[in-house]
Records
---
Amino acid sequence: MTSDDEKSPKIVSDENWKAQARQEKEKLSDQSDQSDQSESAPDDSDQVQPADEQQPVNIPPANFMTLVNSYMIQTYYCLGKFADPEKGEKPKVDLDLAKHHIDMLSVLEEKTKGNLTEQEEKALSVALNETRMMYVQAAQS
């Protein structure tokens, strides 16, 4: 019969892995310290460099006005006011999608009623009026 010592697995301790792990930990700590220092330096955090272009692109602030402008521009695009800059094709009209974007602006107006500054309320109202008029003109032609 075999003893319990022979049945249980043997644990082999290699001291080299401990030293290697310690060195890797120190190296990562040094890299982290260097990245912390570079983060504290002023940077252009609002600029993104697309993979295919190396020139920075300014990203607008994330606020209510940007949201309204975003829906407005999407509506203009769907109403054929802009061509696709990447494809260089003629502007296309998609009335259903334009109506969807206008409806989203309407939802914003309804859900934010009483919670907007005077300037935000006016900008939303102007955006809705302009996009609705453009939609009617596009639908008639």
---
Amino acid sequence: MGYKIRVRPRAEHDTRRAFSWYEKQRPGLGRELALELDSIYERLAENPYLYADIHRGIRRAITRRFPYGVFYLIVESEVRVLSVADMSRNPSVWRRRNDN
């Protein structure tokens, strides 16, 4: 069963900010982050239950190379990405974004 990935506007904003920050550090690094996030989204579309429930239905996938967590909910056949959070700064941001 393929799940639809729905990235909420706040999570898109998180991603754009991270992309810009990494691009300023080194051209191409933001693209590498984007590719890693795309890989996570592909895994979530195939099997969103791969990652543990960390709080009331919210799950977290952690990037391998960058210090980011993708926080999401599974609602029927949809994966709702709530936040793409920098785990080294404020990992609890996802708690404020559970607006279903």
---
Amino acid sequence: MARPPQRRLSRARARDLDIEISFYEGLTKDGLIHPEALELLGDAYDERGRYVDSLRVDRQLRELNPTDPLVRYNLACSLTRTGNFELAASELEQALDLGYQDVQQLNADPDLEDLRSHPAYRRVREKLRHLKRK
């Protein structure tokens, strides 16, 4: 499984992200669930290149709100960044079933680039064709 390239951050941005991560981790520990804090934590992990941590957060968000198409889309992005293409395609299919409609974003999102070239993405393309016919 190929790992995505680490994003280049300035020292100042990396330090700021580490502070944000520490803050949001504090808000989400001890069983307290703050979905907004979890979303921000996942974004910070992602920008910092901590893709496995971002994936863990996206899975938590899916558990909290399994019918939110954007949550499923974001989980697909995390799964793609960690090389889980089959699961990523399944999450995108779920996002589409739940009403995700931003096809331009789906086709251009750099987080999904590796998935778009994977055979599992054929299912997503087929789902998109099927939805267009409805």
---
Amino acid sequence: MLIKKIYEEYKQDVFVYLVSLTNDTSLSEDLVSETFLSAIKSLHRFKGESSIKTWLFSIARNKWYEYLRKEKSTTSIDDLAYHYIISESDLEEKAIQRDISNKILYLLDQEPKRTKDIVLMRIEGYSYLEISQKYGVSESSARVIDYRAKKKIKDILTKEGSLHE
């Protein structure tokens, strides 16, 4: 009964969020289904450290990343980098998007190799568990490395005026 209530309360929010990422209502409908199937399977792992809506958005974003990974030949790393850093913002003009994506990748190139690789893995949709296993660090460490790099990049882009929070 709990999952039915969650589904009814949040399905529209998850759908709108996915449409903002994909710009494709049909794909978004499919991803909503996948999101809630995944939520059902992992409900026992939900610790309440975030709101259910935030948790569902995270699952939805990961489902979208999985889709992009499968469709990698049609999606550039520039697009993935942009959506990773600006995932909740309205999509801007393509020229601005490309410019910001290039800046993000340039800033990532300035980071230590491990940090850059971890962030690129997150951009491509890998889980913190997968990253931690590859780099021999804890999931928490992978999260911290990713968070700090993402925050640093956002701060630089905001200071430059490329991003507006």
